[in-house]
Design brief:
Elements lengths: L1 H14 L85 H13 L9 H31 L47 E2 L10 E6 L3 E7 L10 E8 L8 E2 L9 E2 L5 E5 L13 E4 L1 H4 L1 E5 L6 E3 L5 E7 L8 E12 L2 E7 L14 E4 L13
Length: 386
Amino acid sequence: MMHRTIIALAILLALSPVACGDDGGGATDTADGVLVPGDVSFQDMAATDSVAPVDTVAPTDTVVVDTLAPTDTLAPTDTVIADTAQPTDTVMMDSATPTDTVGTDAVTDTVIADTVVADTVVADTVVADTATPADTVVADTVVADTVVADTVVADTLVADTATPADTVDASGGCPTANTSVGATVLLNGANDLENYPSAQIVAPAAWLGADDAFGISWDHDYLYVTLRSPAFTDGYKPLHVYLEAVDALGAATPGVGKEYGGLTPLLPFTATHVVAARRISDAGDGLLYDGVYGPGLDWTEKLAPLVHDADVWVAADQGAISVRVPWEALGCPRALRLTAHVVNSGAGNEWKDFLPTTATPWADGGGGYYAIDLTGGAAVAGWTLP
C-alpha cells in the first residue's frame, strides 16, 4: 500500500504545473524556489489546491514533518491517503515509507497477539481424554474380579465333599464318625503282637503252636490284624480274614469263601471282603497274592493290593504276619462280621488257627463269628458272639 502511495505522488508531481514555490499555503523553501528533502513544508493548502497534502513529500522524508496543523482544513478535492492506515495508526503516519516502524507494529499486532495457539494445544485433547481408558482397565478387569477372590480359592475347598459333622481321615476318604477312636497299632514285623492292647488279643481254636494268638484293633484310618503262628514257616499257607463290612448288620446269611489249594470254606455269613496274606506273596509268576478280594468271579477279584513292608509285615523268625487295611478298601463300614483262619491244607487239618473258637469252616453254616460295632469299644469282650 505504501509503495502505491509513493508512486501516485510521483505522478502528481510530474503532471502539476506548479512544482515548487510558494502557492500561498505557507510552504518555505530555499532561494531557488524548489522544495528539496531538507525543506520544511507546512502544507497549509487552500480548498482549491489540487495537490494532496502529501504531494511534496519525497520517499525519504520522515513521518514527523507530515503533521497537519489543528487548524488545517482539507478541501473536498484533496485526495486523502490516510484512509489506508490501520485502526491503531495516526494520520501523521499516512506517508510513511517502507522503512517506517508503523509496518512492523501492524505485523507484530496481527501475527503474535491475535493468532496465539495456547488455547488449543495440550490440555484438552491430549492428556485429559486419553487417561481414562488406562484407569478402567486396571481397576475393574485385572485384579478385583478375575484372579483371586472368585476363581481360585473358594471353589476348590475340600469341605464340599463331606457333611458338616464328618472329617475326612488320613487314609483317603472315610468319615471318622464311622469308627470309634480305637487303638492305633505300630506294625513293622518286630514283635507286633506286643503292640496291641491286651484286651484286643484273643487265642484261636485249632492252634498250631501253644502261644498262637490274634491281635485285632482299629482306629479312624485302618483295621489292624496280626496272627502269631508257626504256620507261616511255610511261605504259601495264607491267612484269610473274612468280613461282612456294612453300615448296619441285619440277619446273617451263610455263604462260601475263597477257594485255595482245592479247599473252599463254609462261612456263617455272606462276606463282602476277604483279606488275604501269606509270607511269600509272589510265587514266581509275577502275580502278587496279597490283597483285599471281593466275592466277584469266585473271589478272584482283587479290590486293593496289599504290599509287603507297607501294608503287610512278616516277622523275622517267620512266626507272625501282620496286616493293615485302609477302611476305604472295605467301603468305609460302621459294622463288621468277622471270621478268620489259616488254610493249612493237611488232610484232616485243612484249616487251623480259626477265629472265633466256635467257627467250623468245614461244616454247613460255618459255625460262629464276631459281630462288631465299629463305633463302639475295640475290646474283644465288647464284641457279640452269636
